[in-house]
């Protein structure tokens, strides 16, 4: 005899769309806690979830998601985040549609999603939604070169480089938003020709947004402090490092990517990145973080005249950390 939860899963395929909707909303928490319930009968429940897409067409016109009165906007953002794992969704890079007047974006769907993510944070666009899960959409899409190119290209309609819109969320209160943004920045950093813009204070200036989240309230000597970026010199005594070790690891790995060029390595030495990584290694009890810190330190402490540090090109494998 099926359990109540198994019966609820069966309602995903109910003929009434309102019942399908209600069942799906109530099943969302179980997708991570008890994923096995969706894998019965040769994944039949997963196939039935396609009904949700039929009920709320997400053919990337994205209209329901952008409706300020849409009560299920966060659920739609979660669905889009799952769809973004499909490589075919990278076609969004060129997809266009009319932008809602309330959003004040342009016709490119990617810009609309990005503006929705920024303007909709904390319920400011839609009182029922924060759009945090769009961070996961950007993270998955940015694995594709054409999407990475979008994030580093200044947009004509607002004269802003898209990655500059999301970098400000590396210390946001939402774990989902911080994690997705961290992964997006790391993916875009695989584009080595963009590194000068990443490091330039007048362009992307990414380093403060990577270093602040991994910096705690440790004390440094005067010489170390004076050499750091201004943003890191006068931190409050209650400054806390990001509590999620996965996010800390991602930021350290992004810093390592930005040492691919000699200019990047020299800049990080000049602004005393090493003491921050030293303290991160010391205070974060996580093997992944410590290994990432050790890889970065090996690069920063190595003599440039010593063989073994190689410049890489854009053609190198996109989904790996540079091994040193």
UniProtKB/TrEMBL annotation:
Cited Pfam families: DUF383, DUF384
Domain Protein HGH1 N-terminal: 66-248
Domain Protein HGH1 C-terminal residues, every copy: 254-307
Matches recorded under InterPro entries: ARM-type_fold (IPR016024), Hgh1 (IPR039717), Protein_HGH1_C (IPR007206), Protein_HGH1_N (IPR007205)
Superkingdom: Eukaryota
SUPFAM superfamilies: ARM repeat
Similarity annotation: Belongs to the HGH1 family.
Protein name: Protein HGH1 homolog
């Amino acid at each position: 005899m099926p359990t109540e939860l198994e019966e609820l899963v069966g309602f995903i395929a109910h003929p009434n769309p309102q019942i399908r909707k209600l069942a799906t909303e109530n099943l969302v928490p179980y997708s991570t806690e008890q994923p096995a319930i969706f894998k019965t009968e040769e994944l039949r429940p997963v196939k039935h979830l396609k009904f949700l897409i039929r009920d709320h067409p997400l053919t990337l016109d994205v209209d329901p998601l952008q409706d300020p009165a849409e009560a299920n906007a966060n659920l739609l953002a979660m669905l889009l985040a799952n769809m973004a794992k499909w490589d075919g969704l990278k076609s969004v890079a060129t997809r266009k549609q009319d932008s809602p007047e309330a959003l004040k974006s342009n016709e490119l769907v990617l810009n609309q999603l990005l503006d929705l993510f920024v303007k909709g944070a904390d319920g400011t666009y839609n009182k029922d939604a924060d759009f945090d899960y769009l961070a996961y959409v950007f993270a998955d899409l940015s694995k594709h070169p054409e999407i990475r190119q979008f994030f580093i290209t200044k947009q004509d309609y607002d004269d802003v480089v898209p990655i500059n819109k999301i970098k400000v969320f590396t210390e946001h209160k939402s774990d989902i938003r911080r994690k997705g943004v961290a992964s997006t920045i790391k993916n875009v950093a695989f584009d080595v020709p963009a590194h000068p813009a990443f490091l330039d204070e007048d362009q992307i200036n990414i380093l403060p947004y990577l270093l602040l989240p991994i910096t705690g309230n440790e004390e440094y000597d005067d010489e170390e402090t004076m050499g750091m970026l201004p943003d890191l010199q006068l931190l409050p005594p209650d400054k806390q490092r990001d509590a999620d070790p996965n996010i800390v690891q991602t930021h350290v790995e992004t810093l390592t990517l930005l040492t691919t060029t000699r200019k990047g390595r020299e800049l990080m030495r000049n602004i005393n990145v090493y003491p921050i990584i030293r303290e991160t290694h010391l205070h974060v009890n996580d093997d992944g973080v410590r290994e990432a810190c050790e890889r970065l330190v090996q690069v920063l402490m190595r003599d440039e005249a010593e063989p073994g540090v190689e410049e890489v090109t854009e053609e190198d494998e996109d989904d790996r950390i540079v091994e040193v």
